[in-house]
Amino acid sequence: MTTTTLKTDAEILAERFNLAELRREARHAEVNCLPDWDDSGYWYWYRDTVNEAMAIKKQAQPKTKPIAGHIDIESIKARADILAIVENYGLKVRKAGHTFKSCCPFHTEKTPSFVIYPDENRFHCFGCQADGDVFGFVMKIENCDFKTAAVKVGDLL
């Protein structure tokens, strides 16, 4: 006699999507969690399920023994969420379509020109032309080298 175990919805999502796709799904669900919508209950459930799937996915990532003096850049880059890192540095962001906008931390401005592309884990400022990934953002805002930025991003995860 064989027994089958049913998978939860979160486990199914964790199998089907990578972390970046799950982050995008979570943001999509968050935007649709409006209390005046008839289907807002579904979106609250979906948001919670996606968050659970992200926790499962993060827990399932292989834990490698750290090598003295070695930083696993690819692992950090795969787990890093530029939107969370930017918000951690105190920037107030607002949703603008598929992107997020903020006033640039690298120059003085009144109209937001700093755009965050969460699907690509990148940023670009149309005012000062600053551009890069999560490591580039930390390097620029902390005025540090790549290795220091990688360690700081790793510590923020």
What does this structure look like?
- The chain has 157 residues and is of the alpha+beta class.
- The chain has two domains: 9-60, no CATH class; 74-156, Alpha-Beta Complex (DNA Primase, Chain A), CATH 3.90.580.
- 48% of the residues lie in helices and 11% in strands.
- It has seven helices and five strands; from the N terminus they run αααααβββββαα.
- A five-stranded antiparallel sheet has the order 1-2-3-4-5.
- Strand 1 (94-96) and strand 2 (99-102) form a beta hairpin.
- The longest helix has 21 residues, at 40-60.
- The chain is flat.
- 21% of the residues are buried.
- The model has no long low-confidence stretch (mean pLDDT 82).
What topology emerges from the helices and strands here?
Layout: H1 9-16, H2 19-31, H3 40-60, H4 73-79, H5 82-88, E1 94-96, E2 99-102, E3 114-117, E4 122-125, E5 131-133, H6 134-142, H7 146-156
Antiparallel strand pairs: 1-2, 2-3, 3-4, 4-5
Helix pairs in contact: 1-3, 2-3, 6-7
Distance between the termini: 44 Å
- What portion of residues belong to β-strands? 5-15%
CATH architecture of the largest domain: Alpha-Beta Complex
CATH top level assignment of the largest domain: Alpha Beta
What is the molecular shape? flat
Low-confidence stretches: none
Total domain modules: 2
Global mean pLDDT: 82
Radius of gyration: 18 Å
Output the helix-strand order. HHHHHEEEEEHH
Q: How many beta-strand elements?
A: 5
Structural class by SSE content: alpha+beta
The total count of helices amounts to 7
What is the CATH topology descriptor of the largest domain?
DNA Primase, Chain A
Which sequence of strands runs across the widest sheet? 1-2-3-4-5
Q: Residue share in helices?
A: 40-55%
Largest sheet: number of strands, sense, barrel closure? 5 strands, antiparallel
Task: Identify the CATH homologous superfamily of the largest domain.
Answer: Zinc finger, CHC2-typedomain
